[in-house]
Amino acid sequence: MARITPIAAPEDHPGGAEAELAALFDALFPGEDKPRFDDAHAGLAIAAHHPGLALKLARLSGFIAGELPWSQQKGLRELAIQTVNLAVGSAYSFAARRRTAHACGVSDAQLTALADWRDSALFDPDQCLVIEYAEAAAAGTVTDALSARMVARFGEKGTVEATALIAFWGFWAMFLAATCG
């Protein structure tokens, strides 16, 4: 349940930002007669209290998750995101991304085992490395050795991209934990 009223559709906005609001909904829902954020995008609907902020966050989210080469490894991307959701305590964000994780090849059993991944045989070595790195990045405890393992496996560019994804979804997890519970 949202703690801040979502601006799911243009008519939900209290007013005062009509041009920015139109730009937001036109950009995210081109050609839609009745544009509306669904429940899985409550973060953007809440950010839409400031439509310019919501639009920039949507564009950055799309770039980080959809365009960065490392993020094309969709299963790893979703495991990193869900690990951050757990680390930050964003149950809402974890639940909202469950369907996306499934669509990207992450099983329900893996999502259930994610909190205890070290004791699970459900994750391959790349998945374990990404989960370990995402946990450490979220906690601010990435060691030189762990960083070196990421670079050895994904290269410096891939490690930078993975870190950007983890950091950005850390933002979303904190934002949603605070505004949605």
Quick one: CATH superfamily of the largest domain? AhpD-like
- Helices and strands: which structural class? mainly alpha
**N- to C-terminal distance:** 7 Å
Number of alpha- plus pi-helical segments: 9
Count of the separate structural domains:
2
> SSE order, as H and E?
HHHHHHHHH
Question: How large is the radius of gyration?
Answer: 17 Å
Mean pLDDT reading:
95
Largest sheet: none
* Poorly predicted parts: none
CATH architecture of the largest domain: Up-down Bundle
The portion of residues forming beta strands comes to under 5%
CATH fold assignment of the largest domain = AhpD-like
Task: Report the top-level CATH class of the largest domain.
Answer: Mainly Alpha
What is the helix fraction of residues, given as a range?
55-70%
What does this structure look like?
The chain is mainly α and 181 residues long. The protein folds into two domains: 10-65, no CATH class; 73-180, AhpD-like. Helices cover 65% and strands 0% of the residues. The chain has helices at residues 18-28, 42-47, 51-66, 74-88, 91-96, 98-103, 108-113, 125-139, 144-180. The longest helix is centred in the last third of the chain and has 37 residues, at 144-180. The radius of gyration is 17 Å and the shape is elongated.
